[in-house]
Automatic annotation (TrEMBL):
GO terms for biological process: regulation of small GTPase mediated signal transduction. InterPro entries: Rap/Ran_GAP_dom, TPR-like_helical_dom_sf, TPR_2, TPR_rpt. Keywords: Repeat, Signal, TPR repeat. It comes from Microbulbifer thermotolerans. Residues 105-197 form the Rap-GAP domain. This is Tetratricopeptide repeat protein. GO terms for molecular function: GTPase activator activity. TPR repeats lie at residues 113-146. PANTHER family: CELL DIVISION CYCLE 16,23,27, CELL DIVISION CYCLE PROTEIN 27 HOMOLOG. Residues 1-29 form the signal peptide.
Amino acid sequence: MFLGDKTLLALASLMITLLLASCAGTPTAGGKVSDYSTVRVSGSVNRDFERSLEYLREENYAAAIELLQSVIEREKRLPAPYINLAIAYYKNGDEKHAEEALLQARDLDSTHPVTANELAVLYRKQGRFTEARKIYTDALAENPDYLPLIKNLGILCDLYQQDIQCALAQFEKYLSLSPEDKEVAIWVADLKRRAKK
């Protein structure tokens, strides 16, 4: 599933922080930004981005799409608007445009964990399991402690690929980083029981 409300709000807060940064951007040799916290964004772009987050929370996806497209027209260096645009498209039933927006976000930052997670979840939902698994494993090489990647790779391995050892490894790693998650603890117990059969 694409991001839930709680995760979406946490991501939104992070994105607002990134968009509020006040220093000049640091482009790399390829013209891409290497440090998002240094990107200067105009006040109108930031206001529209914040408003798009309100539209997402209100489940007004058509309005969010329209506003995020406007944000992207004016600010093309940051992956956050593309990720949110993908979420809005997906929630609005448009997987094709959701994928396109995520691929654009990935073009901006190939190691962005949220982009990778959302794209892999989309591919999993489309039955593109091999592609999803590759995205998860590549992203975890760059972001080894990003919990949604770990958990979703475990879900893919368990429910869609019946790879108990992969699932167990992911969920145990997840629990080592987030031991209070009782649901995942139940999954681990179930996987261990199934592994003994």
